[in-house]
Specification:
Elements (H helix, E strand, L loop, with lengths): L20 E5 L18 E5 L8 E6 L6 E6 L4 E5 L4 E4 L14 E7 L2 E9 L11 E5 L5 E6 L17 E3 L7 E4 L5 E4 L7 E2 L14 E7 L2 E6 L11 E4 L5 E3 L11 E8 L4 E7 L10 E7 L4 E4 L7 E2 L5 E2 L2 E7 L7 E6 L8 E4 L7 E2 L5 E2 L22 E4 L7 E4 L4 E4 L4 E4 L9 E5 L8 E5 L3 E5 L16 E9 L7 E7 L4 E4 L7 E2 L11 E6 L6 E6 L5 E7 L7 E3 L8 E3 L7 E5 L4 E5 L7 E2 L12 E4 L7 E4 L5 E4 L7 E2 L5 E8 L9 E7 L5 E5 L7 E2 L14 E3 L7 E4 L5 E6 L1
Parallel strand pairs: 29-33
Antiparallel strand pairs: 1-10, 2-59, 3-4, 4-5, 5-6, 7-8, 8-9, 9-10, 11-12, 12-13, 13-14, 15-16, 16-17, 17-18, 19-20, 20-21, 21-22, 23-24, 25-26, 26-27, 27-28, 30-31, 31-32, 32-33, 34-35, 35-36, 37-38, 38-39, 39-40, 41-42, 42-43, 43-44, 45-46, 46-47, 47-48, 49-50, 50-51, 51-52, 53-54, 54-55, ...
Length: 741
């Protein structure tokens, strides 16, 4: 789910691409010599703690030549291949590491109808100046291993327009020729299967620094059509170009104009009728659309026809404006004239799929007869008693071997049907949550409680099934900003986040059920931040930080959030840390000044202790070792790791690693008297996941080259009841948990 509030993103080169190639392992490839795998004797098995999707499926592509083969892409969580026999998705890009975090957003996918084992990915999450350039991966074994070409242009898999496409295409006349549409650098062409790229000669589109550029590529017979998103929608302004020879380009004549046809979003070609269906919108989406249409072009006569199922702009039964656009479109490879199209950004009447069997003359809304079963992923009830048909529907797939098998992506899942009536998530194995907080309770049924972007807090009574309670309710949060447990009273848990009916809640049963704070500071509605509770759960400290970075004073409560008082001495924006053994102690790290502050009066006042520590980065983290008073660890990113054993009066730099991004604790090894320490950091040349059983004197790497997941610097924690088990938060691949094998 994506909302209008901040969600889970916690960043004109030339047109020729770099020619240097790197072979990268995915699921079965061999590790590179430059990046050692987990040390012998410390091998780990890594799996997702199952939630079931939870993120935006931006594209789904059935292979036209292989029954049961499909691929899916996401905006920040990589790409996947569908395994029909196992009925689950296999991740294909988990091998991308820390330095390649920007490649976890997938701009486009392409397959080769003539070579079923070939698949291509265009990767790049952000097209902004601070983000890295994109890359193209190509595989000859359906994504088991990859060869990579780094581009000199930026792609935007998590930018506006990310549901458009596909922007990558194998030329129907030559399998060695690929086309790649970019947002700000025009159309690129490769004649060596993606090894090198150059500007497509003669392409007439003039890219804009703020526009969409190429929005889609589609083959119609032996012709190639290119959607163009930088037009203004006026009559005569081209938004669709065509080439028959790959060299000579022309604007398609008679193409629709006006606001409802400003941006071509998706296209699908019916080879039986030789008609090209194109969905349009007044904005690239997925948000911000209020008008749209569906047109079809007879490619043999060059005649256009408006086949829009329902015109946007009416009113719903309650008088709300029924504004929306059109998104995904797919044609039936077996039945001429059968087409499915989705609405998008239809919040009042709720999005739907329309299906036609007569070339768009008449339509049926599949939502009207839909029966949903979300028992496998209960969070899709969104705290109510039934799921929505969906939102952000820009990815639609129709199985070329089964006319009744339709799938469509939403902002939270991928729904599928095989009878046009009964729908259920077709999401096993695909996990895209952006995770912010993790707790592994020392007692109780759940070994994990997670705080997440978009879906709030989840209580994981099982690690292999989506939480049966769904997302935490009373109130429902879109995204969690804080999660804390009383160390000496683990039944007491508090959470904060972006909610419409309150921004904080507490639980007296370990996070199974919740009650909202009876009151909250006024600033909480627009700037909910992290929260801490002291060891016995008698005091709450709540920090307020707006998504734009503005910091506000912290507040304190001693009555479960019924009343609050400002703590003026607490450094604005700092994350509060409770001492796990002494309920009178709190700590705070002021990253603006590099100062550790402490409170000895249960959070009423804070005074400076250690000074001169690393400063200037709000992501520096202080963690308290469990069961001990005053044993603090500071992860200071590239400044390294520091430890204090006197409550923050002094810190000593730890010599065993040169970078530490996040750190947590788990059950001690047999015979050890100190908890196991888990860290995302760098002890040698790479950033990886490590464990130490000797108070950070030595470390062993416990992930491997096939399991890296891009950026993993938010939080990590071990299981206090199971030695060796560790939970790792990712930004787009959910909660990964590892166990020794």
């Amino acid at each position: 789910m994506r909302t209008s509030r901040p969600s889970r993103r916690t960043v004109l080169a030339g047109t020729a691409a770099a020619a240097a190639l790197t072979t990268l392992p995915s699921l079965t490839g061999h590790a590179s010599a430059a990046e050692p795998t987990a040390a012998a004797g410390h091998a780990y098995r890594w799996r997702n703690a199952v939630m079931g999707g939870t993120g935006f499926i931006t594209g789904v592509l059935f292979h036209p030549s292989v029954r049961g083969l499909a691929y899916a892409r996401t905006d920040i969580g990589g790409a996947y291949r569908w395994d029909e026999r196992a009925a689950r998705w296999t991740p294909l890009t988990d091998h991308l590491g820390w330095d390649d975090w920007n490649l976890l957003g997938v701009e486009a996918i392409a397959v080769d109808p003539a070579h079923p084992d070939r698949v291509y990915l265009a990767l790049g999450t952000y097209a902004q100046s601070w983000a890295g350039n994109g890359a193209v991966l190509r595989s000859d074994d359906r994504g088991a291993t990859w060869t990579r070409t780094d581009l000199t242009v930026k792609l935007g898999g998590n930018e506006d327009g990310r549901g458009c496409g596909e922007r990558l295409l194998v030329d129907p006349r030559d399998s060695d020729t690929l086309w790649l549409g970019t947002r700000h650098d025009g159309l690129l062409k490769s004649t060596d299967r993606g090894a090198t790229w150059a500007a497509a000669m003669g392409f007439p589109g003039s890219p804009s620094a703020t526009g969409q550029g190429v929005t889609l590529l589609v083959a119609a017979g032996r012709s190639l059509y290119v959607g163009w998103g930088d037009g203004d929608g006026t009559a005569g302004a081209a938004n669709l170009y065509r080439t028959a020879d790959g060299t000579t380009w022309e604007a398609v004549l008679g193409q629709p104009s006006g606001a409802a046809a400003k941006v071509p979003v998706r296209a699908a070609y019916d080879r039986h009728t030789r008609e090209l269906y194109v969905t349009y919108a007044d904005a690239p989406g997925p948000n911000g659309q209020s008008d749209g249409s569906l047109h079809k072009l007879c490619t043999t006569t060059a005649i256009w026809k408006d086949v829009t199922p329902v015109k946007p702009g009416g009113t719903t039964a309650d008088g709300s404006a029924d504004t929306f656009a059109y998104g995904g479109v797919a044609v039936d490879a077996r039945r001429p004239g059968t087409v499915v199209v989705s609405t998008n950004n239809r919040w009042a009447a709720v999005d739907t799929l329309y299906r036609s069997t007569d070339g768009g003359r008449t339509w049926v809304s599949l939502k009207d007869s839909a029966v949903f079963d979300v028992s496998e992923t209960p969070y899709l009830n969104w705290g109510g008693d039934k799921p929505k048909f969906g939102w952000w529907v820009q990815a639609v797939g129709l199985d070329p071997y089964d006319s009744r098998h339709i799938v469509y992506g939403t902002g939270a899942t991928l729904y599928g049907t095989r009878d046009l009536k009964n729908w259920a998530p077709q999401i096993r194995g695909l996990e895209e949550t952006s995770v912010r907080q993790l707790i592994s309770p020392p007692v109780g049924q759940a070994h994990l409680i997670s705080g997440n972007g978009d879906i709030g807090v989840m209580y994981h009574e099982s690690l292999t099934a989506s939480p049966s309670r769904g997302m935490a309710t009373n109130p429902v949060f879109g995204s969690a900003t804080g999660l804390a447990q009383a160390a000496a009273e683990p039944a007491y848990v508090v959470r904060t986040g972006w909610g419409d009916n309150g921004n904080g809640a507490y639980s007296n049963d370990g996070g199974q059920t919740w009650a909202p704070f009876k009151a909250q500071p006024d600033v909480a509605k627009n700037a909910p931040g992290p929260i801490a509770t002291n060891a016995d759960g008698s005091v709450l400290l709540w920090v307020f930080v707006h998504w734009d970075g503005t910091k506000y004073p912290a507040y304190r409560s001693t009555d479960n959030g019924t009343t609050w008082s400002e703590v003026s001495s607490f450094p604005k924006g700092a994350t509060p840390v409770a001492d796990p053994a002494d309920p009178t102690l709190f700590y705070a790290y002021d990253t603006d000044t590099g100062t550790l502050l402490a409170s000895t009066d249960s959070g009423r006042t804070f005074t400076a202790r250690a000074t001169g520590l690393p400063k200037g980065d709000s992501q520096f983290k202080v963690v308290a070792a469990p069961g001990r008073t005053g044993d603090l660890w500071l992860s200071a990113k590239w400044n390294g790791l520091y430890r204090s054993t006197d409550g923050g009066a002094a810190f000593t730099k730890v010599a065993s690693c040169w970078a530490s991004y996040t750190l947590g604790f788990g059950k001690a090894a047999d015979g050890a008297d100190y908890p196991a320490i888990y860290q995302v950091g760098s002890t040698e040349s790479i950033t990886a996941v490590y464990r130490s059983d000797d108070e950070a004197k030595t470390w062993v790497r416990i992930n491997d080259d096939q399991h890296q997941w891009g950026w993993t610097g938010e939080t990590i924690t071990g299981d206090p009841r199971v030695y060796g088990r560790v939970f790792l938060a990712t930004n787009g691949r959910g909660v990964q948990y590892g166990e020794p094998v």
